[in-house]
Amino acid sequence: MRAAFARGGAGIGSVEMRHVPVPDPGPGEALVRITAATLNYRDLIMLKGLLPGLTKAPDYVPLSCAAGVVAATGDGVTRVKVGDRVSPLLAQGWIDGPPDPRRMLGASLDGVARPLAVFDAESLLPIPDTLTDQEAATLPCAGLTAYNALFDDQALSSGPLRPGHWVLVQGTGGVAIAALQWAKAVGARVAILSGSDEKLARTAALGADLTINRHATPDWAPAVRRRLGHGIDIVVDVLGAGSLDAAARVLTENGTIAAIGMLDGPFNWGRQSHEGRRIRAVTLGDRARHAAMLAFAARHDVHSIVDAVYDLEQLPDALRHLESGRFFGKIGIQIKEQGERP
Ligand SMILES: NC(=O)c1ccc[n+]([C@@H]2O[C@H](COP(=O)([O-])OP(=O)(O)OC[C@H]3O[C@@H](n4cnc5c(N)ncnc54)[C@H](OP(=O)(O)O)[C@@H]3O)[C@@H](O)[C@H]2O)c1
C-alpha cells in the first residue's frame, strides 16, 4: 500500500508517499481499512516542530483522525468484528486515567494517512449510522475536544451547558465550528469571533447568535459584554497566550475558560487563576467521552462541516490549504486506494 510519511519538524515539504507492507493485527489489535481522515492544526504543530519532541523518529505517518471499516482482527478481539465501521481514539488506550503521551496517533505513534492501519481494538469506537465516514473522521480531535470543553459537568462551575448559557468561540476552524454545533444542539447561545465577515455569515447560518470580526473589533471582550449586557459562561479558547486576558474579562463570575489551543502562542500556566477566573486545560477526551460525543451527534443529528476534500496523494496540498487558514470547519482526506490486502 502507499502510505504518507513525514519527518517531525521538517515541514510540509517532508511529506512523501511510500510503498510499505500491510501490517498484520497482533493479539488484541484490529486492521482497519481507512476511508476518510481529516486535518487538524495539530498536524502542523507536528510537521513544523512547534512543540518539539512529540513525533516518532526518524519519521512517522501523519494525521490523527480517521474513520474506516474493520478488515481483520487479531487473537482475543471481542470489541469489534470484520465489517464494523469504526473510528480510532487519537490517544490510543485512553480508557481511564490520564492519556499516555507515548500513544498519540500521528505523533508518537504512526497516524492514519494510509489505507490500512492496525490499532488497539479497545481503542476503536463504532460509528453511528447517522454519520458518514468523512463526518466521523472530523471528531476524534476537534470534535471531542470541543465536546469535552462544553459537557464535562464536573469541571464546569456554571454546571451543565443548557439553554440560555452563552459560549464564546474563537475562529472558524475545526474545534470552533464543532463547539458551535454542539452548543446549538442543546439550545445554548454562541458568540463567535472570526477574521472574516464571509465566514461569520456562515456561522450565523449555523445558528451563531453574536458574530464579531476580530479585525474590526480587536478589543472584543468589552464589545461582547456591551452587546449582551452580561458575560460568557464558557470561553472555548483556541488562541492561548494572546487571548487569556480578554477571555478572563469576558467571563461571568461563574464561568470557565476551556484552555485548548495555541494559535496565538501557548498558554502561560503560571497565571492559571487569572483574576480569580477558572481556567481549565482541555485535552481531547477518554473513550467514554468519545462514545458519549458520538451518541450525542447521532441523537441531535449533528453533521460536521467539511469544507474541502483531497485525495491522500494530495496531502501536501491539503496541508498547505490548512496552513492558509482559508477554510471553514474541517479539511478532509478521502482514501480511495484500498491496499493490497484482500
Ligand atoms: N488540547 C487539545 O487536545 C487540542 C485539541 C484540538 C485542538 N487543539 C488546539 O486548538 C487550536 C485550534 O485547533 P483547530 O484544529 O481547530 O485549528 P484550525 O482548524 O486550524 O483553526 C484555524 C482557525 O482559527 C482562526 N485563527 C487562526 N489564527 C488565529 C489568531 N491568531 N487569532 C484568531 N483566530 C485565529 C482562523 O479562523 P478565522 O479565519 O475564522 O478567524 C483559522 O481559520 C490549535 O492550537 C490546536 O493545537 C488542542
From TrEMBL:
GO MF entries: oxidoreductase activity
Coiled coil (residue ranges): none
CDD domains from the UniProt entry: MDR7
Record domain Enoyl reductase (ER): where: 10-333
Organism domain of life: Bacteria
UniProt-listed SMART domains: PKS_ER
Gene3D superfamilies from the UniProt entry: Medium-chain alcohol dehydrogenases, catalytic domain, NAD(P)-binding Rossmann-like Domain
PANTHER family: PTHR45033, ZINC-TYPE ALCOHOL DEHYDROGENASE-LIKE PROTEIN C1773.06C (PTHR45033:SF2)
Designated name of the protein: NADPH:quinone reductase-like Zn-dependent oxidoreductase
Record organism: Nitrospirillum iridis
